[in-house]
Amino acid sequence: MAEPQPKTQTKTRIQAINEDIILSAALEVFSAFGYRGSTVDQIAERAGMSKPNLLYYFHRKDDIYRAVLEKTLAQWLTPLRGLDPNGEPLAEIARYIRAKMAMSRDNPKASRLFANEMLHGAPAIGDFLSGPMKVLVDDTARIIKTWIAKGQIAAIDPYHLIFSIWAMTQHYADFDIQVRAVLGADSEHFADAETTIIRLIQDGLKPRS
Amino acid sequence: MAEPQPKTQTKTRIQAINEDIILSAALEVFSAFGYRGSTVDQIAERAGMSKPNLLYYFHRKDDIYRAVLEKTLAQWLTPLRGLDPNGEPLAEIARYIRAKMAMSRDNPKASRLFANEMLHGAPAIGDFLSGPMKVLVDDTARIIKTWIAKGQIAAIDPYHLIFSIWAMTQHYADFDIQVRAVLGADSEHFADAETTIIRLIQDGLKPRS
Amino acid sequence: MAEPQPKTQTKTRIQAINEDIILSAALEVFSAFGYRGSTVDQIAERAGMSKPNLLYYFHRKDDIYRAVLEKTLAQWLTPLRGLDPNGEPLAEIARYIRAKMAMSRDNPKASRLFANEMLHGAPAIGDFLSGPMKVLVDDTARIIKTWIAKGQIAAIDPYHLIFSIWAMTQHYADFDIQVRAVLGADSEHFADAETTIIRLIQDGLKPRS
Amino acid sequence: MAEPQPKTQTKTRIQAINEDIILSAALEVFSAFGYRGSTVDQIAERAGMSKPNLLYYFHRKDDIYRAVLEKTLAQWLTPLRGLDPNGEPLAEIARYIRAKMAMSRDNPKASRLFANEMLHGAPAIGDFLSGPMKVLVDDTARIIKTWIAKGQIAAIDPYHLIFSIWAMTQHYADFDIQVRAVLGADSEHFADAETTIIRLIQDGLKPRS
DNA sequence: AATGAATGAGTGTTCATTCAT
DNA sequence: CATGAATGAACACTCATTCAT
Predict the structure, then answer these.
(1) For B12-59, which CATH class?
(2) What is the fold of B70-205?
(3) What pTM was estimated for this model as a whole?
(4) Which residues, numbered 95 to 134 in chain C, qualify as contacts with chain D under a Cβ-Cβ cut-off of 8 Å?
C-alpha cells in the first residue's frame, strides 16, 4: 500500500524543509518591505541560515520572490473556485465573502505581498493575471450572469461585483494599519466588517420586484 | 496699482518651479517603485536635472518622499470633507463616491503612493493616520450616525461603510493592472465601476420599511 | 600530545591576519592624513584588498579608526607603567625618557595618530583620557611626590614634569618634518636629542643643597 | 605730511575687512578640523557670508588655507627673533619661554593649525621650514653657541634646546584637551607650567663649576 | 549541505568649484 | 560685491552574487 520510494530522490527531506523555511521567511520580509526594500541577508537571518546557504536553494533573489508569489497565488484563488452555479446565489456569495475575509484575517502578509506586486505593475506575475486569473474571473462572471439571467439576483455588472468584493475584503489586510489607526489597535473589527460587507452586497443583489 | 513686491522673498521663482518639477517626478517614480525601489538618480533624470542639483532643493531622499506624501495627502482628504449633514443622504454619498472615483481615475499615482505607505506600515505618516485622518473619519461617521438615527438610511456600521467605499474606489487605481488584465487595456471601466459601486451602496443603505 | 583544537573558533586564521593587515594599513594612512583626510579606498589599497572586503571586517570607517587607536593606546602607555617607586629617581626617569624616545623613533606613526586625535579635541578617546590615562598620570605623579618628600629630587610640579617629558620626546615624532628641515634629512638626531633631554631633566631635578 | 592716497586702490576698505573676517573664520575652522575636515561652507558660515562670496576673495579652498598659514607663521616666529646676543643668557631664555607660553595661551588655535601641518608632513609650508624658519633657527643656535663659548651657559646642543622649548610650550596649546583631562577643566595651569619649564631649562643651562 | 571570504555595481550624500545674474 | 543655482568628482556604505573550501 505504501507509495514506492523512487531510487533517486529529486528532493531530499532536508531540502524540502529548508525551502519551506525560506519561503516563510521570504513572505515575512517581502510583504513587509517590498522587493527592493528586502535584502537577502534579512531573509537569511529570519530563516536562520547563512546567506550562501540560502542561495544554494534559490540561486537569485528573484527566484525566491517568484517562488513565494507562486505559492501565495495558488492559495489566493482557492475561495473563488468554490462558487457553485447550482447553489443559492446570495448564500454562495456570502460564503465567498467569508472565505475571502478569512484569508485577509489569517494571512494578511500574503495579501500585502500580492497587493505590492499589483501596485508596482505586476512585473513578476503579469502572465498570471492575463492567464489563469482572467480565466477564473471570466468563469465566475459567467456563473453570476446565469444567476442574473434566471432572475435570481439583480442585474449588476459581474466583473465589478467581483472587484468590489475583492477590494473590500483585502482592504482589511492591506490597509490594516489605517484601519487600526481609526478603530483602535485591539478592536475585533474583522467580524463587524464581514457583516457590513455581506449586507451591502446582499442588499445590492436582491432581485428587484 | 502695481502689487508691491515683498522685499525679502522666502522662495525665488525658480525655486518654486523646480520644487514643483521635482515633486511631480518624485510622485511618478515613488508611486511606481516604492520608496526603496526608487533612486534619487531616477527622480533627478525624470526631473531633468542633475542629482546634486536635486539634492540642493531637497537635502535627502527622505525629504523628497515626505514632501510628496504631504502634498498628496492634502488633496486626498478633500472629497471626504464635503459631506453635508443636511443634504439628502443617498445623494450625498453618491456624490462622495463620484469624487473618490474621480481621484482614482485622474490621480492614480497619488493613490498608489498612499497605498504603498499603508502596505509597509505607514512609517512616514503614522502620525497623520492617528491624527488628522482619524478626526476626519470620526466626524464623517458622526454625520452618518445622525442620518441613521433620523431613519434616513438603514442602520449600518458607519466606519466599515467608509472603509468599503474607500476600498472599492481606490481599488481601480491601486489594482489598475489587475483590472486591465481582466477587462482589457482600453476598456472604459471607471464609469461602469462607479455605477456598480453607487448602486451597491445605495441599495445597502435604503431604509428598511 | 597535540593541542586540542577548540571546536568553535571565534576568529579564523585568515580573519586575524586580515585584521592585522588592515590595522597596519590604517595606521599608515590615518597617521598621515588624519581621519577626514583618509579614505577607505586608500586604506583598502594599502592593505591590498578591495574596499568591500575591508568593510567586511570593519563595518565602518569609524570602526577601523577606533580599532587602530585602541591598539595604539595600549602600547602607548606602556613605558609610563614602568616607574619603580623604590628605584633611584634620576635613573628611573632617565630610563623612562629613553623608553619614550624609543617609541617616538620606532613608532612615529602611532605618535602622530595620537597627536592628531588630541589636536582635534579627542573626539574618539575623550573617555580614555579622563579615565585610564588620568589614573596612570595620577599614580605616576604620586611616585614623584614621594621622591620629593624624601628629598631625593628637587621640589617640582610632578604633572608638568610628566607633560614636559611627553612633549619633548613626542616632538621628534610629531614634528619630525620640522626637525629634519632644520637638522637635515639623514642626521641621527634622536640620540643627541635624548642626551639633551635627559640632561635638562636631570639637572632640573637635582636636589638643592 | 599725510600719505598721498593712490588713485587706483589695489584693495578697497571692504575687501581688506572681509579678508580679515575670512581668515579669522578659517583659522577657527581649520585649526579645529584640519584641512580635509573643514569645508568651505563651514568657513563661509562662520565668516557670515555666502560661499560664492567667500570664493570671490579666495578662489580656492587651498588659497584660504595658505593665507591663514602665512599670517600665522609670521606671528609665530616673532618671539624667537627677540633673543639679544648681548643680554644675560638665562634671563633672555626665560623671556623667550614666557613669550612662547603666552602665544600658546593666547593663540592656541594658531598653534594647533601649525601642529596639524607638521603632523601631516607640511605639504603647504615645506619651503618655509627649510627656508626662513631654518635660517632663524640657525641664527638663534649661533647666539646660544656664543654664550656657550663664553662660558655663560653650560654646553648643550642648541638645536635640541630650541626644540625642547618649542615642544614644552606648544604642548599646552596642542594637547590642551589632554592637559585638561588630567588637571581639570578650569585649572590655571599655564602659570605653573611656565614656572616648571623655566626652572628645568635654567637649571639645565647653569654653567658647571 | 553549508559557510567564510570576496567583489562589482550601485546608491545616498558631500563638497569644491563654476556659472549666471 | 554678492548670491542663487548648478555640477563633476568623490566618498562611505550596501547588496546581490560568486568563489573556495
Answers:
(1) mainly alpha
(2) Tetracycline Repressor; domain 2 (1.10.357)
(3) 0.90
(4) 112, 115-116, 118-122, 126, 129-130, 133-134
